[in-house]
Amino acid sequence: MSGTFLGTPAFPTAARTALGDSQLRRNLAHATGTIRTKRAGVVGEVDEWEQLRLAGAAIKERVLRHLPDYLEQLERSLTAAGATVHWARDAAEANAIVVGIAQRHGTDEVVKVKSMATQEIELNEALEAAGIHAWETDLAELIVQLGDDLPSHILVPAIHRNRAEIREIFLREMGRAGKAAPEDLTDEPKQLAAAARAHLREKFLRAKVAVSGANFAVAETGTLTVVESEGNGRMCLTLPEVLVSVVGIEKVLPTFEDLDVMLQLLPRSSTGERMNPYTSTWTGVTPGDGPQEVHVVLLDNGRTDVLADPTGRQALRCIRCSACLNVCPVYERTGGHAYGSVYPGPIGAILTPQLRGVGSDPQTDSLPYASSLCGACFEVCPVRIDIPEVLVHLRGEVVDAHKKASRLPSVQDVAMKAASWTLSSAARTERAARAAGFGGKLAARVARRDPGGRTVLGAVPGPAGAWSDSRDVPVPAEESFRSWWERTDGGRSRTSDSDSDGGRS
Amino acid sequence: MPRVGLMVTCLNDTLFPDTGKAVVTLLRRLGVDVGFPAAQTCCGQPMVNTGYFDEATPLVRNHLDAFAGYDAVIAPSGSCAGSVRHQHGLVAERSGDPGLVRAVADAPPVYELSEYLIDVLGTVDVGAYFPHRVTYHPTCHSLRMLGVGDRPTRLLTAVRGLTLLDLPGATECCGFGGTFAVKNAETSIAMGNDKARHVRETGAEVLVAGDNSCLMHVGGLLSRQRSGLRVMHLAEVLAQTEPVISDAGRAADRRSVGSAGVSA
Ligand code: SF4
Q1: Which of A121, A152, A430, A497 has its CA 20 to 30 A from that of A303?
Q2: Where are the transmembrane segments (chain B) (predicted)?
């Protein structure tokens, strides 16, 4: 993958591309719809799902409260088991560590099991810059890499591609990167998978160094875990001589029992399966079996900043199941690329601004607003991250950062201040409402009545245009509720016979 | 007799006063003495949801003052009831004023209309009559922020003459989302158009919901499409009763007068 998200425009603009691409919208609606139904089915089978969610959230909260302790414990366990532990404050440090390890072993290629952490730090690009090819071995990740594309989903990075597109990419690109796809390749999923398998097998058997992430790291024992569906991860974790795992510091769990809870929550939430096909765990080095040199890079890269925010820190509970993406109506229509980050969808909208910090980049600052706050994400999140709460909180941070940074208030600042001033007093509100009612009277002359009896305006110029381009605009009532109440004593005095019957007839 | 305050909401006050009048009619019919504290304005949700916590603080104070002394607050809006229930605490905390935090905690409970009817009054059949094909959109804040569940549809099912039709993809957001509809207008419209399409698929004459904000959005699209569908607030449906002959005559009169000066 050579592209990066750098330079992605702010969300509303980036979304426009996806909204205009009807094929993409169909692909996404179909894929997310399918996973959504599957997930709902298997979650429905678990009677104590809510208890399980609470348990998952509680475990992660405990970890976050005592993060330094658990990390030190993890380091001790890992070291005792023969692994080498590295600490990386940011992407540059982490990349330098991995590149250094590969170079020490004189290799010009590494195989990779799909890992969000290494995507986040853009490890592939760093390796490439050092002349080392990183081969993604996850099927979807391979499609993205060969297509010189960017991932658009946490779990299914190539969710935006359909079968026909995948076939084309394989035919065109596989030969350049290794074993070519058979010429008679069709777009049958089975055939596509077989082509990928043959292409990757060659790489697994040749690679000396593998790079992975980890879904969980058990502090008590120093055990890392990767869960996956295809078995490619297991090949990466067992065949090469050297294994480097880049692990976000929030991935630590206290004990194996905690892992039990997570392994029930994760597959159901992510792929809609009762158990994922491959769960690999490894603890340091086992002489004569698997990689004989094991490195673990513990990555901060903004995570301690997130931890410092009492409201926002719940984002660190995330187990990257992608359930929130699959239910998000905004994600479904805009796709993942519009978020300009390896973490798209609702979790991306809260995690990315926190990792990057708000107030300096318009693209990042647009993310907390990329939601209608419908709450579907919170409803499905297996570790109960209240994403809408964090979104609103981050909007506050964005606004405060901008107020602090510029001496001149923005149009929005002024509007909100004025609205606040008007609306904090009933008298002022009433005067404004009268003015609106007057405007309503004027507007009513050019308005039409919709079939429900509400008076509406068609397309209007000016700031209301963003609304009225596609939606008719309601006209303010000629008499506000409060003036009606005052005039008629709450409908008790019949000054007008049309006032006391409530709704329209 | 408990003192019940109607929180009409700023949107209903200025744009949809009929919804407020319907709530008054309905509650009176059910024997509730409902008051309208004139000091009320806006609950502050538009500010909070746009990130303007400081600007929301005086509105939260005003809300608390306006409804002090009432035993309960009723709002014909899941969104605004949800905002009072879940956001006023956040605003208070962020303001750093412990007095405000306490005041929010001690404020009278706020109910969305369907919650009040079923949970407090214990009424499902409110004596309404509405002989039309209706479909119901459970707005996100009613559904998820408040968790009103099937209360609104239970109320609608008990309305005489009413046929309730299933809405495909009912729980999916209509795309309004307050300032989202303006800040991300294109995505909002894409969502709203899907909702409008589902509504039309039902063959209903009337789309009903518990939030006029969402109805304004979906209704605006339906109206632009000249779909012929009406949108109505739940309260307006529940306030309808079987017409008495003389009243019906008057109503017909008024309708023709009402639409006189309007180019349809
Ligand atoms: S935020 Fe929750 S639902 Fe979304 S990916 Fe993370 S764990 Fe899954």
Answers
A1: A152
A2: none
Contact A275, A267 (CB under 8 A): yes
Domain boundary among B61, B96, B120: B120
Q: What percent of chain A has pLDDT over 90?
A: 75
Q: What pLDDT score does A413 carry?
A: 81
Cβ–Cβ below 8 Å for A505 and B254: yes
Domain containing B194 equals 133-238
Closest to A490 (Cβ–Cβ): which among B24, B172, B173?
A: B24
Cα distances (angstroms) measured from residue A495 to each of A492, A498, A499, B248: 9, 9, 8, 20
Same domain, B187 and B139: yes
Decide: B183 and A11 in contact? Cβ < 8 Å: no
When pLDDT is cut at 50, 70 and 90, the band that residue A228 belongs to is very high
B172 touching A, CB under 8 A?
yes
pLDDT band at A502 (very low <50, low <70, confident <90, very high): very low
Based on the fold, state whether residues B91 and B158 are members of the same structural domain.
Answer: no
Q: Which atom of ligand 1 is nearest to the CA of A269?
A: 8
Last residue in a domain, options B120, B155, B177: B120
User: What angle (nearest 5°) sits at the alpha carbon of residue B96, between those of residues B95 and B102?
Assistant: 95
Q: Is residue B261 part of a domain?
A: no
- Domains plus CATH for chain A? 11-305 (3.40.50.10420), 414-496 (no CATH)
* Residue pairs spanning A and B at CB distance below 8 A: 278
Percent pLDDT > 70 in chain A is 90
pTM (2 decimals)?
A: 0.90
- How far apart (Å, rounded) are the C-alpha atoms in residues A451 and B214? 17
B187 and B233 share a domain?
Answer: yes
Residue A266 Cβ < 6 Å to ligand 1:
no
- Output the pLDDT for position A438: 58
Contact assignment for B188 to A389 by CB distance below 8 Å: no
Mutate to test the interface with B, among A13, A373, A430 (most CBs of B within 10 A): A373
Same domain, B45 and B152: no
Please work out whether the CB of residue A322 comes within 6 Å of at least one atom of ligand 1: yes
Where residue B24 sits, what CATH number does that domain have? 3.40.50
Q: In what order do the strands lie in the sheet with A223-228?
A: A252-253, A216-218, A223-228, A278-283
- Give me A281's structure tokens: 């765990």
Q: Which of A284, A292, A290, A296 is nearest to A239 (CA)?
A: A290
Give the Cβ contact number of residue A246 at 10 Å: 29
Same domain, B107 and B14: yes
What ipTM, to 2 d.p.?
A: 0.90
Tens-place pLDDT, residues B122-150: 999 999 999 999 999 999 999 999 999 99
* Chain A residues with CB-CB distance to B33 below 8 A: none
How much distance in Å is there from the Cα of A389 to the middle of ligand 1? 14
Per-residue pLDDT, B247 = 55
Residue B258 lies in a domain: no
Residues B28 and B115 in one domain: yes
Instruction: Give the mutation target among A39, A250, A383, A386 for probing the ligand 1 site: most ligand atoms within 8 A of CB.
Output: A383
- Overall number of domains in chain B: 2
Query: pLDDT (tens digit, 9 = 90+) per residue, A43-97?
Result: 999 999 999 999 999 999 999 999 999 999 999 999 999 999 999 999 999 999 9
pLDDT tens-digit readout, A338-370: 999 999 999 999 999 999 999 989 999 999 999
Tell how far the Cα of A308 is from the centroid of ligand 1, in angstroms: 20
**From the CA atom positions of chain A, what is the Rg in Å?**
27
